Amino acid sequence: MFQSKTVSAIxxxxxxxxxxxxxxxxxxxxLGQKKVLQYSIDEFLLNKYIDEIIVVIKDGxxxxxxxxxxxxxxxxxxxxxxxxxxxxLKEAKGEIVIIHDGARPFITQDFINNSIETMQxxxxxxxxxxxxxxxxxxxxxxxxxETVDRSKAWxxxxxxxxxxxxxxxxxxxxxxxxxxxxxxxxxMEEIGETVRIIEGDYxxxxxxxxxxxxxxxxxx
Length: 220
Fold this sequence. Notes:
Helices cover 26% and strands 25% of the residues. The chain is of the alpha/beta class and 220 residues long.
């Protein structure tokens, strides 16, 4: 039987939501019987491997979060996703951290368990799905320069799971433009660590636009 190390879950809820628009952070919107963020928190609370949960919230949204009714550690996010994760890493007690977007409400126990159990063999894992459509790379004028081999392309989701010490090292070692950092797996790649993809599900969508809320209602 798998014997895990101590595990901290980090749920990111401090995004700017520029693509979504509106007057309220999308993670506090109603989706079915709950707020978007509650789906992720509740799933991690149920998980057998999780020793602590840290929710990264936006400075100024304390009251919105408090209305959800949880007694869970929070930290404030930073200017970028990288900053927000690093703020939480400094507070995390676990030897393993599992990081999830609070705007992805359809996380499952299988995603969490498979991510953590794979840490027996790797220091970095991410949930993802195989790309269905043809993907083309373009230049600054939107002229196609390359067609990607679809059989080797994956669409990356969360949760993403890491050896905490190695991830902190990756954060502190990255000296390039932080605007290039798309996720924590990229940071691990930058220091030469292998990242293992765990197959997820196409329903594990991220609420990014108002159209996504309508789509999510079909799954909730």
